Amino acid sequence: MQEKAKIKLGISIGDLNGIGCEVVLKTFADSRMLDFCTPIVFASNKTISQQKNHLKIPINYNGVPDASKALDGKFNVVNVWKETPKLNFGEATPEGGNFAIRSLQKAVEALKQGKIDVLVTAPINKNNIQSKEFNFPGHTDYLAKELNGQSLMFMVTDDLKVGLLTDHVAVKDVSAAITTKLINDKIQVIENSLKMDFGITKPKIALLGINPHSGDNGVIGIEDDKILKPVIKELANKGHLVYGPYAADSFFGSDGYKKFDAILAAYHDQGLIPFKTLSFGKGVNYTAGLSKVRTSPDHGTAYEIAGKGKADHSSFKEAVFSAIHIFRNREEYLELTANPLKKQKITRK
Length: 349
Fold this sequence. Notes:
Blueprint: E1 7-12, H1 20-29, E2 37-43, H2 45-55, E3 62-64, E4 76-79, H3 94-112, E5 118-121, H4 139-146, E6 152-156, E7 161-164, H5 174-177, H6 180-196, E8 204-208, H7 223-237, E9 241-246, H8 248-251, E10 262-265, H9 268-279, E11 284-288, E12 293-297, H10 314-338
C-alpha cells in the first residue's frame, strides 16, 4: 500500500508578546513531531530566531519564501515580514496585533490555495488585533467568513466534546440570540462533524438549558420551555438523538456528560468552564463546520507568564495531533461515502 503524503500543517504565530511562539517552538523542538507532519509557520526567520534565543529553545528551522517551498522533515518558516518586531512580553501592543493578523491572513490564504492542508492557530489578543482588515470577535468568525462555512466553536478531547450555541456574545444578549434556526443549524454542524471528523455514526447529543434549572417550568425564565423543548422534540421526531434541556449546574458534576458524544452549551462560560476544568490543559478548540480543518490550544495569550519559558505546550501539541487526526478522518469519510460499496466501515471511536 502506498504511504499517504505527510500532512502540511500551517501555523499562525499569534501575538508575539504572548506565549504563542513559545508553545509552537517547544512542540517542534521534539524532532519526533516531524514524523507526523510538515510544520509551516507564518512569521519570519528573524522573529523565530529572536524568540528561540530569548527562550533558549534548541530548534533548527528552514526559511522559505512561500509555503509551497516547505521541505518535509524540517520546521519551516514562511517569511511573511522583513521587519524585526520589538518584543514587549506580557503587553498588548498595537504592533503585536498587527503581526498576529499578518501571520493569520497569510496562513489562511495558503489554506485556501491548498498550500497547507490544515491550520493550527496560536493565541491572539482579541483587542489589539482589531483593525479595518480584522473586525471579528475572534478566529472562529473570521474563518467562517473566509471559508464560507457555518462555523461552530467545538472544544474537544478524546472523551469530552462541547459545542457552543453562542460563543463571543455578551451574557445579556444570549437569550435573544438563541433561536429555533440557530439551534437547528448548530445541531446539524455538530452531527456532521461527529460523523465526518470523529467517526461516530449515530451521534448522541445533549443540549444544556439556558436558565438555571432549565427554567424550572417557567419559574426562572420561559426560554427553555418556549424555544429549547419544542426544537428538541421536533428533532427527536425526525430521528435525531438529541436530548435535554439539562440543568448545567449538575450535568457535569454527576458525570451525565459521559453518556453523550457531544454537549451543546447555550453560551460561552456555561460550556468552557467545565470543559477546561475537566480537560486539564489537554483540550483543543476546533472550528467545526468549515471546508478546512482549523484547531488551536484551549488557552489564550497568557501575558502573565509570557517570555519566561514557563508555558505548558501540551494543549498546542494536542491541537496539532487533533488537526492531523481530523484531516485523516475526513479523507476516510469522503472516500467511503463516495464509494458506498467498499467493505470498510466507519466505526465508532
